[in-house]
C-alpha cells in the first residue's frame, strides 16, 4: 500500500517546490476506468481496470446533437457518471470537487499531492499538448502524480500511454476549465484520502 502520509515538498536549487507521489499507473482502454484503477492500486487495492469499469456501471450510450461547436454530434459508449457510481458502490462518498477560480483549482491540486494523494481530473484534450488535437473533447480523465514548481509542470499519466507525461501549469489549467466544447468544466478533481473495500469484494493486497 502506498504511503498516504503528507509528502514534504522537495526543494530544488531555486528553492521552489517539487512533489511526486509513487506512480502506480496501469495502462488501460478507457480514461475514467483507468484513472479509477490507478487510484485503487495506489491505495493498495489490486483491482483491474475491467473490474473498476464494471463496478462503476461504465457501459452505457448517450448521443448529443449540439448546434455550434465542433464536434456538433457525439455518440459516447460509457455512462455519464461512472466515477460517482463506482465510489458510491464501494461505500466511498466521493464526488467531483469543483472550483470557480483556476488558481484555486491549481492550488488545491498541489495541496492534494503534498498530502500524498494522487488525483484524477477532468480535462479537454484540445489543451493537452501531447494530443495535438484540433477538436475539443471535454471530460477526458487523467491521473496526476506530482508537480515541479520551478519548471511549472504537472506529472501525469493518461489511459493507454505507459510513460509519465509532463504538462505545463497553464495548459493544464486551460484543459480543466475549457468552455469551448460539449460542456463547461470547473476544474473537476477527485483525490480521496482513503478507499474502503466492500465486505463482499476482494480485499487489499
The CATH architecture name reads Alpha-Beta Complex
Query: Could you tell me the strand content as a percent range?
Result: 15-25%
* Total of helices: 5
Oligomer: single chain
CA-to-CA gap between the ends?
8 Å
CATH topology: Cathepsin B, Chain A
- Which structural category do the helix and sheet elements fall into? alpha+beta
Q: Helix proportion of residues, in percent?
A: 10-25%
Q: Say which CATH homologous superfamily is assigned.
A: Cysteine proteinases
Give the integer mean of the pLDDT values. 87
The domain count comes to 1
Number of strands: 9
Low-confidence stretches: 1-6
What is the alpha-carbon Rg in Å?
Answer: 17 Å
CA-based shape? globular
CATH class: Alpha Beta
Biggest sheet statistics: 7 strands, antiparallel
Q: N-to-C SSE series? A: EEHHEEHHEEEEHE
Describe the structure concisely.
With 205 residues, this protein is α+β, with helices and mostly antiparallel strands. Helix content is 23%, strand content 19%. It contains 5 helices and 9 strands, in the order E-E-H-H-E-E-H-H-E-E-E-E-H-E.
SSE map:
Elements (H helix, E strand, L loop, with lengths): L9 E2 L5 E4 L10 H12 L6 H7 L6 E4 L7 E4 L5 H8 L12 H13 L4 E5 L16 E9 L4 E5 L7 E4 H8 L12 E2 L15
Antiparallel strand pairs: 1-2, 2-6, 3-4, 5-6, 5-9, 6-7, 7-8
Helix pairs in contact: 1-2, 2-3, 4-5
What does this structure look like?
The protein is globular, with a radius of gyration of 17 Å. Strand 3 (62-65) and strand 4 form a beta hairpin. By secondary structure, it is α+β, with helices and mostly antiparallel strands. The chain has helices spanning 31-42, 49-55, 82-89, 102-114, 169-176, and strands spanning 10-11, 17-20, 62-65, 73-76, 119-123, 140-148, 153-157, 165-168, 189-190. It has a single domain (10-190), classed as Cysteine proteinases (Cathepsin B, Chain A, Alpha-Beta Complex), CATH 3.90.70. It is 23% helix and 19% strand. Strands 1, 2, 5, 6, 7, 8 and 9 form a seven-stranded antiparallel sheet that branches. The chain has a two-stranded antiparallel sheet with strand order 3-4.
